[in-house]
Amino acid sequence: MRKIITLSATALTAAVLLSGTSPAQAKPNPVIPDPFDKRVRCTSTDADGRKIVTRYGNSQFGWNHFTHRHNIKKCAILNAALKDKVDRNDGHGRLEYDGVAIKTGGKPAQVKFVVIVQYTRKTKDGRYDAGKGQKIGVVNAFCRNQPNNKCPAWMNQ
Q1: 0.70 exceeded by the pTM?
Q2: 149: phi > 0 → left, psi -120 to 50 → alpha, else beta; which?
């Protein structure tokens, strides 16, 4: 048994020396970004006739981002802001639409929210591509002046 262990250790040492790297020197695998899910969850048309889609995206942007991080879980919330004119346009495809959600009843409340759209084929950093003839669409949506920009639960009812 000792001969087998000694031979195995010798063979492993020889393999490491021949490869030129030791296990401690081996470089870690590069971080793989979240895959970008191009499927469309919602569609809307703004006042200027732009067809705006909301893609599932990933944890960094799109539906999968803002539903978890900012508690917006209905397309109707997005559509309420997207049906109007653009409130801010940077001239490079980033469009921002403002909206207001109003709660009526026993405890009335009002919340302002923003929907951010990347109306280009690729994201600004070039990491994500919606495909030929397509637009990235809604990248984020959140409530202003709320803790962590998280929308209240009543907005999703």
Answers
A1: yes
A2: left
